[in-house]
């Protein structure tokens, strides 16, 4: 099963390398030549243009957002490279209604579509241990199994049509985005009280106030290390999708609204490319709090 | 070591019973005669009035709030019941500055004070497995060890003066209160999208969006079961302490503010005595969402 991975960023690169390790013939495509070189060094095949690809049975899409996904699907040579009934597995986080729309257009061309947003972070992706929130026809899911086995630890099968996968990712991103902002708020208050931040992490991680994101991101704040695992701008985008979808449903989301405002302020302050935990810098500035690693 | 437990609510009752089980001579005091009867049935000694108590070496305070704690300490016969240098272990959630103030007044009477707010919930309390965020003199902590061993799984020693324990509890309650509100917001949005709520819990619990509170409280919402483990009014109080302390430090807390507004709205709507996850009912009403267990 010749597999093409489009977008060799942190998640896509991990998925592509995991496929190679499982003996799947895998071609990677990215606009960044450095990413292609890194992939070739791992034993993958590099494509500098989609026009050079052919005979693809399965394509995994790992671009940044809905507009890039639509562009690569509908405004490129991709469909010419695909075999009939090829699997199109879209791993991009996008609105459920967009997932349904894209699925309809892809299936109208005779290809099969799986709505398959992922979770887990770059480290797990590189180990072939991401989580996939997947929905698509039973038959497509079965044919995708070798690829899913290569890249994922958990594959949640959420329904036989597109949209269900993206709905679950939406709920996950709501919680993840709010929890990172809450971790930042808690660490900023703790810093203002001159608490030992390492001790805060040690204790809270064993108490009812803990979250996956607190355990993962609070150490970045305590260490003053904002090298991006996932960036502020990812949550500007993803909480934007959450609040748009909620507005569309006429559903109130006061916590997501408050968190999104923080990510936007951070992005506007030039922190968009830093780790998402850098939202704490917005809070610290507004509160006159000195954080670890910041200039006095 | 004759121990007196004041306040036999869900946490205090669990602590008192755990002391009895470890062979510590334990007297319980509560204004509710039913609570006293239940404690006697577990082998404890019941005191209907503090005037009848004497020879107490250690008192554990488990009343609801700072004002009750101050009243039982300074406007009752408690001090007459205490032996010289008795241990006063205050497990009530209160502002760090209040903890310092109370400690000073207790120590001025010749007693020893431990600032010891707790976490873990009623079920763990009953198993002698709560968590204690403790600060107090090294000597007092050593003497308290048999009681801590009886009631707690984790004792975090956070410093040699009062206030440090309450600071950590403050941070925990900020996170816990925001995470419950976030879980409610996520479940309400999922319900509006007609998602399978049990599936949401199953998937999110294994993804980056999870939190201790999500795993614990989201099932209440999916089951439509709002019998209180911990009530809405507890978080009206505790997030009130968080935001007061933050204001005092001139620290901004936009997520705590948004969550506190929800708990207050729930309390104003007559839901104060329900499980804290009942904040979801405020969101559902504002969003015209029908939740499990609600009247159509």
Overall description:
Two copies of one chain form a homodimer. The first copy, chain A, has 296 residues and is of the alpha/beta class. The first copy, chain A, folds into two domains: 3-162, 3-Layer(aba) Sandwich (Rossmann fold); 166-287, N-(1-d-carboxylethyl)-l-norvaline Dehydrogenase, domain 2. Chain A is built from 13 helices and nine strands. In chain A, strands 3-2-1-4-5-6 form a six-stranded parallel sheet, sandwiched between helices. In chain A, strand 8, helix 7 and strand 9 (152-157) form a beta-alpha-beta unit. Chain A is globular, with a radius of gyration of 20 Å. Chains A and B meet through helix 8, helix 9, helix 10, helix 11 and helix 12 of A and helix 8, helix 9, helix 10, helix 11 and helix 12 of B.
Using brief descriptors, characterize the structure shown.
2 domains, alpha/beta, six-stranded parallel β-sheet, globular, Rossmann fold, three-stranded mixed β-sheet, 13 helices, N-(1-d-carboxylethyl)-l-norvaline Dehydrogenase, domain 2
Give the gist of this structure:
Chain A is α/β, with parallel strands linked by helices and 296 residues long.
> Assembly type of the shown chains?
homodimer
CATH architecture tag of the largest domain in chain A: 3-Layer(aba) Sandwich
Rounded mean pLDDT of chain A is 96
Query: Shape of chain A, please?
Result: globular
CATH superfamily descriptor of the largest domain in chain A: NAD(P)-binding Rossmann-like Domain
- What pattern of helices and strands is seen along the backbone of chain A? EHEHEEHHEHEEHEHEHHHHHH
CATH class category of the largest domain in chain A? Alpha Beta
Helix content of chain A: 40-55%
The largest sheet of chain A is: 6 strands, parallel
Query: Counting H and I runs of at least 4 residues, what is the number of helices of chain A?
Result: 13
Q: Report the sheet-strand fraction of chain A.
A: 5-15%
Low-confidence segments of chain A, ≥5 residues, pLDDT <50? none
């Amino acid at each position: 099963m010749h597999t093409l991975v489009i977008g060799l960023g942190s998640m896509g690169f991990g998925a592509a390398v995991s496929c190679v390790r499982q003996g799947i013939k895998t071609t990677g495509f990215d606009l960044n030549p450095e990413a292609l070189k890194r992939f070739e060094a791992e034993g993958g095949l590099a494509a500098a243009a989609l026009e050079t690809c052919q005979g693809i049975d399965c394509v995994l899409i790992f671009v940044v957002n809905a507009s890039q996904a639509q562009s690569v699907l509908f405004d490129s040579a991709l469909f010419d490279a695909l075999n009939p009934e090829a699997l199109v597995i879209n791993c991009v986080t996008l609105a459920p209604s967009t997932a349904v729309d894209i699925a309809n257009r892809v299936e109208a061309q005779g290809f099969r579509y799986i709505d398959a947003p992922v979770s887990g972070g770059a480290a797990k992706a590189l180990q072939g241990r991401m989580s996939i929130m997947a929905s698509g026809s039973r038959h497509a899911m079965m044919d995708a199994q070798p690829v899913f086995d290569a890249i994922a630890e958990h594959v949640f099968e959420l329904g036989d049509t597109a949209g269900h996968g993206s709905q679950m990712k939406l709920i996950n991103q709501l919680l993840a985005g709010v929890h990172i902002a809450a971790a930042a708020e808690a660490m900023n208050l703790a810093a203002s009280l001159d608490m030992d931040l390492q001790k805060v992490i040690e204790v809270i991680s064993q108490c009812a106030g803990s979250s996956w994101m607190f355990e993962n991101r609070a150490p970045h704040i305590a260490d003053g290390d904002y090298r991006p695992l996932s960036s502020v701008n990812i949550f500007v985008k993803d909480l934007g999708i959450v609040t748009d979808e909620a507005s569309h449903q006429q559903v109130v989301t006061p916590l997501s609204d408050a968190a999104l405002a923080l990510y936007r302020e951070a992005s506007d302050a030039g922190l968009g490319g830093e780790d998402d935990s850098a939202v704490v810098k917005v809070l610290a500035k507004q509160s006159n709090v000195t954080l670890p690693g910041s200039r006095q």
